[in-house]
Amino acid sequence: KEKTIRPELPAGFLEKLKQMRYSDHTIRVYTTYIGDFQQYFAGSNLKRISPDEINAYLLHLIDKKNISSCQQNQRINAIKFYYEKVLGNERHCYKVNRAKREKTLPDVLSKEEVKDFLTVAKEDLRFYCMYSLLYSAGLRISELLNLKPDDINISRSLIHVRQGKGKKDRYTLLSKPFINKLEEYRIAYQPEKWLFEREAGVQFSESIVSKKLKEIAHEAGITKRVYPHLFRHSFATHLIEQGTDLKIIKELLGHENIKTTEMYVHIADTYKSKIKSPLDDI
């Protein structure tokens, strides 16, 4: 099977993304999707593509590729970025239909599953510390990998998350029982630039961390689809189950809008409905 040759990105596209300080993840997504867009319209002048043609392209992806509403919206954002930010077109002169996101609740791990997972993860101190922080601090994977040694405040049991989503700093929890393990890791690995380094001064990639996570989950006997963000979902849901105030959880997660945080109330309610009464077994 021949490898598809991707066209060069539109002039100024990558430079504008970096100039506007988009995250590495968003840059990867946008460049992939604008590359697909270029391939679909190969031979055409992108500057002259009409909104109707773009809508036809999106319908093609929905019908033939069965893309989700979430991916559809991401692709629209990538296209809009090119026309509005790179080319400087007016926002109102470019219109495409957006899909409504499906209102599905993410799955979460139970506390027992988290315990089983971390028990297996203990075989590798470095990955154990990574996954413990993902869960105990409610971090996004990008936030975990961007942590620096000085971001850990042991005396206050806090973690300084710098330039999280939306380019905002925040503080989140550092589990006190976990501090000894983290100190053990720091003594053993002597991290320099990043808290977690693949080698001296080199960050881990998200793909390596995700792959190892899936391997550990499989070994732990967890049958759910396990991915890094699942630990963040589980962190928030377990805090709600403990009775933590929603506004505090919002700040810990770095959410812009409390409505985003309210999702976890619904997840917690769903799990409550699955709890058996002690009388059920009598």
From TrEMBL:
GO MF annotations, alphabetized: DNA binding
Domain Tyr recombinase: 104-277
Keyword DNA-binding attributed: yes
Pfam families: Phage_int_SAM_4, Phage_integrase
Residue ranges constituting the Core-binding (CB) domain according to the UniProt record: 4-87
Keywords of this entry: DNA integration, DNA recombination, DNA-binding
Any one biological process term the GO annotation gives: DNA recombination
SUPFAM superfamilies: DNA breaking-rejoining enzymes
Entries under InterPro entries matching the protein: CB, DNA_brk_join_enz, Integrase-like_cat_sf, Integrase_catalytic, Integrase_recombinase_N, Integrase_SAM-like_N, Tyrosine_recombinase_XerCD
PROSITE patterns: CB, TYR_RECOMBINASE
Family: Belongs to the 'phage' integrase family.
Entry protein name: Recombinase
Organism from which the protein derives: Bacteroides fragilis
